[in-house]
Amino acid sequence: MAMSNTPDHSTAAAYGLSVETEPMEAKLAKDLPSGRGWQYEPKWDGFRCIAFKNGSSVDLRAKSGKPLGRYFPEMVELLADLPTPDFVIDGELVIEVAGKLSFDALQLRLHPAESRIRRLSRETPSRLIAFDMLVDTDGTQILDRDLAYRRARLEDFGDRIKADPTHFIVSPATRSLSEAETWLSGSGGDTDGVVCKRVDEPYQPGERAMTKVKRLRTADCVVGGFRYGKDSRLVGSLLLGLYNDDGQLDHVGFTSAIADIEKPGLTARLEALRDGEGFTGKAPGGPSRWTTDRSSDWERLRPELVVEVKFDQITGRRFRHGTKLLRWRPDKKPSQCVFSQIGL
Q1: Whole-structure pTM over 0.85, yes or no?
Q2: Would you state the torsion angle of the CA atoms of residues 73, 77, 79, 84, taken in this order, to the nearest 10 degrees?
Q3: Which domains are seen in the chain, by residue range?
């Protein structure tokens, strides 16, 4: 089978759309929006992925814009073999382990050794859950068409290709608020909430034009600095930041929920990023409800790491209490960690 993992990215012509196109994003809300004109979808627990195809050439792009094809060769092969020459699809890459979606299994793919990636692709193959179509199968861009049209084209695509559902499916969707509420109350495990989209709106790359409602309030934050533990040379807490409207990184809180077994390796990883600019907006220091004499004692980092944390309340554009570290997000760019994701 002829297949390329390294297509020409220099022009949009190869795929009918630039591979640098950013996915449309969502802002966090407490409640599901109601009224006419809403489409609701499960929020899947995976890696956001835009899949580009032209002939036998396939490119997979993460939310950060980084190429994913090297890490998911089985998905590149699957899409290359589909009986349609052109498309660009927005979706979520997931991996199922023991009947449940596993984010850890996804992270294991981001490994430098090709032999390991190939082994994992056989042992735990990925699935693409498609939820939007940006370029139709005849190569026509349809971003400017409304969601109702794009969804109809995606469903027709899914019916025609007859792909193995263990590797490719079209995400369920509904316009019923009650059904969406059922999804939300049962979310957890494979899904962690509901995504809400206007059926009459176009696809808006890079814009937070969707709404997401999650059972847990979470945020993706930049690690702008860290503190050592008391009387220790191991990390004690991570200092979290979000970018404000001026492009400055504001300190918004911390997380200290770090397992002891992880601290040595994490400390070395953080120390390798020291001497960066840290927080360029509001910075740690001064009176603090969490620390006293050590409130200004912290290590500045280059803003390269992204972590997802769970929080309860926000006061004055800061997390009111300490947060719980849920997972690292190597699939996201630090610049995507902005206040608007949490409705501010």
Answers
A1: no
A2: 160
A3: 25-214 (3.30.470.30), 218-342 (2.40.50.140)
> How is residue 26 written in tokens?
């969502």
**What does residue 150 show for φ and ψ, rounded to 5 degrees?**
-60, -40
Dihedral through CA 328, CA 332, CA 333, CA 334, nearest 10? -40
pLDDT of residue 290: 38
Question: What residues pair up with 240 in beta bridges, in sequence order?
Answer: 223, 253
pLDDT of res. 188: 60
d(CA 273, CA 264): 15
Tokens encoding 343: 């409705």
Note whether 88 and 49 are within 8 A (CB): no
Low-confidence ranges of the chain (pLDDT < 50): 1-11, 286-294
Active site residues: 43
Give the pLDDT score at 296.
61
